[in-house]
Amino acid sequence: MPIINLSGSFYNEHGFLCNVNFFADTKIENLRQLGCCITMSRNVLVGCFHGSEKLDKPMKESTNNDHLTPFTDLRFQQLIETAFEGIWTLDADFCISYVNQRICEILGYSKAEMIGRELSEFMFAEDLADHTEKREKQKQGQTERFERRLKHKNGSERWTLTSATPVQDHNGNFSGVFSMILDISEQREKERQINASEIQIQEILEVLHVGVIVIDEHGKIIFTNPHVDLMFKCDPQHLIGTPFISHVHPHERDMSQKALHKLINGKLVTTSYESRYLCADGSNFQGFLSGRRTLDADGNFSSLVVVVSDITKEKLANREIVEYKSFLETVLDAIPSYVFVRDQDGRYRLTNKAFSEAMGTTPQDIIGKTNLDLGDPVWIAEHAKKEDLEVMQTGKDWTNPEIEIVFPNGGSRFVQFVKRPVYDSQGKITNVLGVITDLTERRKAEGALRESEKKYRTLFESMQQGVYYQLADGLFIDVNPAALEMLGLTRDEFLSRTNTHPGWTILDEEGNTLPSDLHPSIVVINTGKPIIEKFYGVYNFKRERYVWMVVSAFPQFHEGETRPYQVFVTMHDITAEKLAEKELSKREELYRLISSVVSDYLFSTQFDQENNLNLNWVAGAFETITGYSFAEYKEHGGWRAAVHPDDLEQDDHDLQQLRANQKVITEIRTIKKDGNIAWVRVYSQPIWDEENNRLVGINGGVQDITERKLAEDEIRQSAEDFAALYETASDFSMQRDPYVILRTITDRACSLFGVSNAFVCLYDPEQKDLELRISKQPILPIGTHIKLGEGMAGIVAQTQKPVIIDDYSTWHGRLQQSDVSIFAASLGVPMLYGGQLIGVLGVQEFHPNTHKFNKADAHFLSLFASQAAGAVYSADLFEKIRQNALELEKRVDERTKEIQIKNKELETFAYTVSHDLKAPLRSISGYSTLLLEDHADQLDETAKAYLNNLLFATERMDKLIEDLLTYSHAERREIKKTFIDLNELINKILAEHGPELDQGRFTIEKVILCKALYSDSEAITQALRNVLDNAIKFSSEQPKPVITIRCDSTEDHCLISIKDNGIGFDMKFHDKIFEIFQRLHLSEEYPGTGVGLALVRKAIERIGGKVWAESEIGKGSIFYLEIPL
Amino acid sequence: MTSDPQKLSVLLVEDNAMEADLTLRAFTRINFINPVEILRDGAAVLELLEQWKTGASLPGLILLDINLPKVTGLEVLRKIKSTTQTSNIPIVVLTSSTNESDIKFAYEYGANSYIIKPVDYDKFVELVSTLCYYWTALNVRPELSR
Question: How far is residue A841's CA from residue B60's CA, in Å, rounded to a whole number?
Fold first, then answer.
């Protein structure tokens, strides 16, 4: 930027300032030689004179014009001060002697702050060396231009372009420096930035994964980035200087050449195309090229920049996608499910053959269309779209496990419908995949199977005939409720039974109990031949009596086998069969009735101005059904007037549905002209005004279903009746208390008939009269006796037939004492059991209104009464048995007491015996002893021998009495159980034999495995002692007697065995040895009273055990004591 | 040591004459020199009890049978043992009864011993000998030691 207007240059005696072109170059040199110091800054020349007189003239001469106006000090000053360049002068010591305003702006100091300071103070330390160097040069008079860093007042650096001109005094000595400074900090910054961005571009080009190639106007390559070398598989920079076109695949060179030409010629600014390129190794790749011409500053072609990317892989991937798509389509078309993809607008993007066929079109035709386009009704299309959007918004599957869909070309199908969101590559949901799986066939098949299984099961469970299956090994595997009912067992009880179960009593026709191997199922299993309709009786524990039934049993064989693997048994309770027959015939009659009545009429109605429904026309059996003629009917008030008052609400509801454009099928009561009620089934179809969206009329048909309704009611009623009877029967079977049974009967009768009173009078065969036993609301005192033939109950009892009385209060035959003043519909039936009159059951309804009993009621109450009679009869019997049992119990008690007294007496007797028998013995013994000892000298040897025999006899007698006492004591004494240590007890008993055993002759072996026993200690001790005594006694003659004692425990017993190797005994005497006073040996050989083993048996039997022995003569014996644990 | 054991008398209560005779002979056999008095029924003992109460001299030992006519041995035992003046007289029940309740009651009423008479006479003599020495010679009676 020029400092001043070029139109004027200035000078004064100190110097000048002018455009660089102001002087010719020679002139400037001339001026310099004259001692003018000239500095150039941009296009301004500044001259300094050191002696104005010297230069004034040449200046004038040289300019030769008046353009160079001499300028005054002031103007010069102004010029300097306002100059863009900073200007300063330094003195000879390089201290600042002058600065202009610009310098102050550049460095941030005021003039005052700078004047007088050394220049170096405004420099950075690291630049001082350079400064010193420059100073030297300037001192030598060298003018220099250089870039220099200066320090701003705030410490920041300012880059300057400085021109420094040394100034000399008149003597030519260095007197200072004149400098002009241009602030180039911003420029420097920009340069730095440009440098940085150039480096960045370089780096980008280095790492770029596309090839960047620059081509000159001749089509030669002048630049490549490293990726180009990779793409073309050549050495770095190898392509530089080669024609670009030579690397294009020969087949595509023409096309490429033309495109490049157009760019170079400026016909195109950019271009892009795909072509193949040759690599250095001879291979090629598919590339995508985009090119752009670049221009220089003057708008001329500078170069062509092309970017080439390798798209070979992309191409392959695309091909794969196409192939995969085709594969997918093939798969989709092959699967039977209906598949489609719809976009946000509901347009089909993909479908399979199955779906398009069902839609009545082809996959090609569906694509791009919406449901609406395909002819779906608006609401369906909207609905589907709504669901699609929901799936897209929530990103969740939508599943309808079973839905009926009507396809244009596929009819109605039961399907499973799944919709699933489809994500695009950005992860956004743009489509919905729908998969519809046809369940119709599966459903049919499943349904049929289920149906058949259900049918079988229902039949099996509900059939009156009892059925069970039994495997050949006797295991019961299935049974139906009827069979369980007949047998009086629960299912679990039955299935866990076997034919040998003690409770399984089966009688044949003659009433003989059959052994288990002659049970029908077992016979069939064993013979493989069926049993057809044979008569058996089976004991029913619930009913506590035999149930007689006709039984058939059929063997079932696996193919090719001759033995049945199971047997199938049917049982027919005779009573049940009869009931079933009755029910069957009743139903058949009803169906006959229903089928004979088939008639209906059609109608059309329309709303009139007042919004009333007007019957327009009818056709068919109108008169038959309504009883009215068409005209009469309208006059009477039409449909609404004919509807039964109780069903008006239903009719209102139906009309509401019709107003919502919905079809209605309803069953409703109407009143015929004759006042009778007719049940009708009405099919109503709304006549809809689409424009105004309202109901304008109704078309429909009416069918008379009165008969069917009645039949249904009756069937329901009879089913309920049977259920009630069954319940009653099961109630009764639980009860034995006569009062509870009577109460159950009346409660149930009341609830069955919905009446307020029920009563039972029981018949007394001895008095031949009735006694009122129970009544919910008695009209006679309970306990009243009623004679046969009197009152309702009396008549029922006499005739044994039901009596129906419409109103007892006004009945001529009413009992005078009965307390009934209001209307009382009454029904009485006999309670018969096995043809025997048990009593009378009656029901009554006290109501001024209308309840009347009819024959059906009487029939039903009779059925109920027979059940009740059975229950009362068994309760009565039971009561008698109970009385008998009580009597029996009492007698047993008495007998027990008697026995106890006798026992007591016996005990006393035994002690008395022991005492009184022993006294004389003592005397005999005493005097014999006295004789032998005190009078020995008077006795001869024979007398002494006799006396000794006497003594021996008394001793035996004493022992005998002792044993007898023990025995009788063992029989009667009380059992006291304690814990017994067998080992200790055995040791104790053995110790009693101390001297005999201690001599070491006896070997005693003990194996005590059952150590402790909870039992009666005395009994065990007595038994063990006697058995051990015997063992010792009978083996004492052996040279090496061995006694082995074992105590073993079995599951619930302790088995003690005592084995000896003594003389043994003949096993034929086995039973004898355990009897009292039985001996196998002479008492001289082996002493004993014959009570020991009897005592053993008695003691062990008293505690519930068993005793036995094994023996062989000469070998020894084993005695066993088995004691319950 | 006893002061004068020889003077202690023994009262034998036994209804059976032969048994009583045999017992006396047993005393003789063991050279028992103390006086032995025999009573044949319970009632007689109770009469004697009345005299004892009024100061008559007490026997050193009573051998008592259970099965006695009129008043049973157990009743006699109870009365003697529940009478202050006589409660210290040693009483040995000598009987053939093995009745458990007899044994139980005898000890309950205060019998000093309950002996079942053996049938064997030699054994009986041995038993009587042991008894008499125990109660009349070897043992110091409580009231005599005072």
Answer: 93
CATH 3.30.450.20 fits A604-702, yes or no: yes
Q: Where are the beta strands (DSSP E) in A298-369?
A: 301-310, 338-343, 348-351
A203 in helix, strand or coil? helix
- Which of A905, A927, A929 to probe the B interface (max B CBs under 10 A)? A929
Of the candidates A922, A930, A957, the beta carbon closest to that of B19 is on A922
Of 3.30.565.10, 2.40.50.140, 3.40.50.2000, 3.30.365.10, which CATH number belongs to A975-1124?
3.30.565.10
Identify the band that residue A163 occupies on the pLDDT scale cut at 50, 70 and 90. confident
* CATH superfamily label, B5-139: Response regulator (3.40.50.2300)
In chain A, the percentage of residues whose pLDDT exceeds 70 is 86
Asked if A923's CB is within 8 angstroms of B96's CB, the reply is: no
A923–B19 CB contact, under 8 Å: yes
A interface mutation test: which of B119, B122, B124 has the most A CBs within 10 A?
A: B119
In angstroms, what separates the C-alpha of A957 from chain B's closest C-alpha?
10
**DSSP 8-state code for residue A1075:** S
**Contact call for B22 and A923, based on CB within 8 A:** yes
Q: How many CB atoms lie within 10 A of CB B133?
A: 14
Q: How far is B85 from chain A, CA to nearest CA, in Å?
A: 32
- B119 to chain A, minimum CA–CA distance in Å? 4
Question: pLDDT tens digit string along A433-456?
Answer: 888 887 776 667 666 667 767 767
Distance CA A678, CA A786 (A): 46
* For B25, nearest residue in chain A (alpha carbons): A930
Question: What are the b/e assignments for A981-1017, b being 16+ CB within 10 Å?
Answer: ebeebbeebbeebeeebeeeebebeeebebebbebbe
The residue that leads in pLDDT, B88 or B143, is B88
Q: Is residue A222 within 8 Å of residue A214, measured between CB atoms?
A: yes
Domains of chain A by residue range: 9-185, 208-310, 316-444, 463-573, 604-702, 713-888, 975-1124
Q: Which two tokens stand for residue A368?
A: 């791009």
Chain B residue numbers with beta carbons less than 8 Å from the beta carbon of A958 are 119-120
| Domain A713-888 class in CATH | alpha beta
With beta carbons less than 8 A apart as the criterion, state whether A468 and A480 touch: yes
CA distance A1122 to chain B (A): 30
Q: What phi and psi values does residue A58 have, to the nearest 5 degrees?
A: -55, -35
Average pLDDT over residues A700-729: 72
Q: Count, in order, helices (H) and strands (E) of chain A.
A: 32, 44
Kindly report the average pLDDT of chain A as a whole number.
80
DSSP category for residue A31: H
Cα-trace Rg, chain B = 14
Cα A32 to Cα A54: distance, rounded to the nearest angstrom: 12
Q: Say if CB A1018 and CB A1024 are below 8 A apart.
A: no
Region A31-48 average pLDDT: 66
Q: Which residue in the set A918, A929, A965 is minimally distant from B122, CB to CB?
A: A929
Same fold, A604-702 and A975-1124: no
Q: Which CATH architecture has domain A9-185?
A: 2-Layer Sandwich (3.30)
Contacts 24+ apart (CB under 8 A), A373-380: A374/A408, A375/A408
Residue A777 has pLDDT above 90, yes or no: no
Span A956-1007, pLDDT tens digits = 888 888 888 888 878 777 888 888 888 888 888 888 877 667 667 888 888 8
Contact criterion met (CB < 8 Å) for B98 and A914: yes
**What would the DSSP string read from start to end of A957-1008?**
HHHHHHHHHHHHHHHHSPP-EEEEEHHHHHHHHHHHTHHHHHTS--EEEEEE
User: At residue A586, does pLDDT exceed 90?
Assistant: no
